[in-house]
Design goal:
The chain is α/β, with parallel strands linked by helices. 48% of the residues lie in helices and 11% in strands. The chain has 15 helices and nine strands. The strands form two sheets. A six-stranded parallel β-sheet has the order 6-5-4-7-8-9, with helices on both faces. Strand 1, helix 5 and strand 2 form a beta-alpha-beta unit.
Length: 357
Amino acid sequence: MLGFVGAAGLAAVAYGPDSREQMNPAADFVRSFSTNIRNPISMFSEVVEHVSRVKAGKTTTLTALAEGADLLVAGFNERGLAGNIADYHGIPLAVLHFFPERIWSSEGLYSAVAKDTDDAQRRTLGLSDIPSARPVLEIQAYDEICLPGPAADWVEPDGRQPFVGALTLELPADADDEVLSWIAKGTPPIYFGFGSTPVDSPADTIAMISAACAQSGERALICSGPNDVTRIPDFDHIMVVDAVNHAAIFPVCRAVVQHGGAGTTAAALRAGIPTLILWLWLDQPIWAAGVTRLKVGTGRQFSVTTQESLVADLRSILTSQCATRAREVAAQMTKSAESVASAADLLEDSARLASPG
């Protein structure tokens, strides 16, 4: 992401280990974790040791970067680490949440490891054992209506956790013009995409999508993301590309089938078309439950999806009632520009209120 951030005119600094290397099945930590997963005691100790090493490097980098800053903004998964550094410098902290924190903090192993390593970090920084009581701005970067139930069930109703809607840049993709030309030559397609998630067998997944769409009489636009599709055969009713601009492409599609990422789900809801979420983990089942509650689509675990279930799920969302409801919900979604402006205003206000001047 360094080149991407630099292209926006900002100075970019590497922070922590490369996440793609960390997720590589051949990486030393991943191999060791897989070996010890049946031994919770050994696994916990090894995870704590690994996270402590990572946090030590991140602490050095972020402590230097934050010196003299008016505000420290962190991702939800860096709250503890960034909060300690904010305490060290005596500056306010703001946290961006792309889904409710309770989903993340409810993971028992994560919570235990985070507490141990955050406490160790505070000792290294010479801080007391008790974190600062300064209020933290916690921006909810999604729309409240997307939740599968009342907002009070997911966030604290204290005014410090405002909903701003999804933060998206809506940047053009290289394939957009080609995709729009292909769409214009036939009936609106169904979009299929899995974000940055690798799937076990891209060829089998595309073959299942192709067969289900052929059986349903639909065209399919497939976004391959990081998956290797170089050996995928050509299909007359299917187009496969690396990436598209969701804001430009979704509105001219008939429906969206995707993994349930917060950003992709918001883009589909903003586009006003039905959504099928084939979820894998973490927050994705929450958004699947949300679209089901809104009656704009449905969800299913990706691992149990078959050609037959996909045909049935497509049939359930490709109805006039679902399409009408999707348009109604789109009118209630926060517009992208409004989301960005609201988040920026909140951050600036937080820094301004904390300033001695």
